[in-house]
Amino acid sequence: QVQLVESGGGLVQAGGSLRLSCVASGQSFSTSAMGWFRQAPGKDREFVADITWSGGSTSYADSVKGRFTISRDNAKNMVYLQMNKLKPEDTGVYYCAGPVGGRVVIASGSWGQGTQVTVSS
Predict the structure, then answer these.
(1) Shortest CA distance to 70 belongs to which of 44, 92, 94, 45?
(2) Rounded CA separation 110/58 (Å)
(3) Contact between residue 36 and residue 110 where contact means Cβ atoms under 8 Å apart
(4) Whose CB among 1, 20, 38, 74 lies 3.0–4.6 Å from 30's, allowing a Cys bridge?
(5) Average pLDDT value for residue range 78-104
(6) How far apart are CA 37 and CA 81, in angstroms?
């Protein structure tokens, strides 16, 4: 099973940028599609973005398309989420997770502990 640890969250003004990082341990990382999810206060956790094992294909929630970019470096066991033009509604705890299939983490998948992102207006 893959172990995941996120970092890079923080407080930023609307319009600003943050880059989240996720380091993975485990032999299956480089062959697994990975994703980012988020949970706002009082709301359900939701899909943000995912990336195939090779990095050749990505997909995004409509709410972040054109502003966020997911990437990975299999040599470093890392997954990233570059977030630009942040909005207050992007506030929440962001989770790295995988393996992902159909924008959902598989039953035997792993979740990180989450990193807080707060966007002030």
Answers:
(1) 94
(2) 19
(3) no
(4) 74
(5) 97
(6) 10
